[in-house]
C-alpha cells in the first residue's frame, strides 16, 4: 500500500471509528480516588514509619486507625510522585497520538484500595486503528521515554538527598537493624530480619547498581520501601521496564515491531516470553514442594510426591503457555518445554548462579502476556521506513529497558 492508497483507506467510513467525547468528571474522579488509594495503601503496607507518625499530630481516625500529619505527608508525597510519573507516561502516548491525528481517550487511572500499592496504573483507549508503523512507533515510544525523563530526576534527587541510616529509627521495630546502625552507623550488607522468608526485598537493576557505587547513604533494597521518594522512583522505573518488554502490544512490542518488522518482532517476542518462563521454572523448581503435595497433605512427607507435585504441574503449565506462544506448533512446544525443564533442573542441582535467575512471580505476568496482551503484534496497514532519529530513539528505549529491568523485582529474602 503506497501513500495514496493509505490516504484513501484512512478516509473510508468506519476506519477511524465513531467520535466519542471524554467524560472529564470520570477521569478526574478516578485520578482523585487513585491518589487517596495509593497514598493510604502504601503508608499502611510499605512506608510504615510508625515512630514518626506517633510523634506527629493525629488528624482523624479511619476504622480505628489514627491518621497523623506525618502519615499524610509520607503517603501524599509518594502518591504525588508516582501519579506524576503515570500521568506523564500516559500523556506521552496521548500527545503523540494527537500529533498523528489518532483519536484517543484521556488517561483512565485504576485505583485498587488496600491492594498492592493502591493502583494498577493508568491506561488510555485508542479510538481508531493505527495505520502506519511510524505512528505505531511514535505513540509506543513516547510514553516510556517521557516517563523515564521524569523518573530519572526523581531518582537522582532522592539519592543525593538520601537521609543517613539513622532515618530508620523513625520506622519503629527492626530492633536488630537499629542496633547495628547504632553501633556501626551504616546498614548491614545483608538483612538481619530475614527470618522465615519474611523480609520483602526490591529487585536490583543495572541503574540502581551504578548509583550505589557513588552514593554513600543509599539504603539497601531490603529497606528501600520505607523511603517514599526512593520507593516511588524505583516503582516508576520498574513500570517503565514492564512496558518496554519487547512483547506483543506492550510499548516495547510496538517499538520492536516498527524497528524490525513483523517477522523478527514475533521471534523476539517468543524468545522473551520463553526467557521469562525459564526464570519462572527455575524459581518454581527452587521453591518446591509443589501443588500435589500441598493438595494432599497426608502424603506431603513423601519426597517423591513433593517432586512430582513440582514437576508435573510445571510441565503442564509450560505446555499450556507455550501452545499459545508458538501457535500450537507441537515441535517447538515440546522442544522448548524440555529445554526449560532442563534449565530448571540445572538450577536445582547446580544452585548459584543459575538459581539466582529464578523468579516464580513471572508466572502471572506470562499469563497476562500470552492470554491478554498477546505475543504477536496485530498487522499494520502501512509499512513505513523509520528515520535515523527514530531508530536511535528506539535503540535508546531498549537500553532504558536493560538498565531498569530486574530479574527478581519483588521477593522475600
How would you sum up this structure, described in words?
The model is unreliable at 1-18 and 291-296 (pLDDT under 50). Helix 4 packs antiparallel against helix 5, helix 4 (69-99) packs parallel to helix 8 and helix 9 (251-287) packs parallel to helix 14 (388-404). The strands form 3 sheets. Strands 1-2 form a two-stranded antiparallel sheet. A two-stranded antiparallel ribbon has the order 3-4. 59% of the residues lie in helices and 6% in strands. The chain has 413 residues and is mainly α. The relative contact order is 0.11. The protein is built from 14 helices and 6 strands. It has helices at residues 3-10, 24-47, 50-54, 69-99, 133-160, 175-184, 206-212, 228-243, 251-287, 291-295, 303-325, 330-350, 362-373, 388-404, and strands at residues 58-62, 65-68, 108-111, 119-123, 200-202, 410-412.
N-to-C series of helices and strands: HHHEEHEEHHEHHHHHHHHE
Question: How are the strands of the biggest sheet laid out side by side?
Answer: 1-2
Q: Which segments are poorly predicted (pLDDT under 50) over 5 or more consecutive residues?
A: 1-18, 291-296
Derived from helix and strand composition plus strand pairing, the structural class reads: mainly alpha
Taking Cα atoms only, what radius of gyration do you get, to the nearest Å? 24 Å
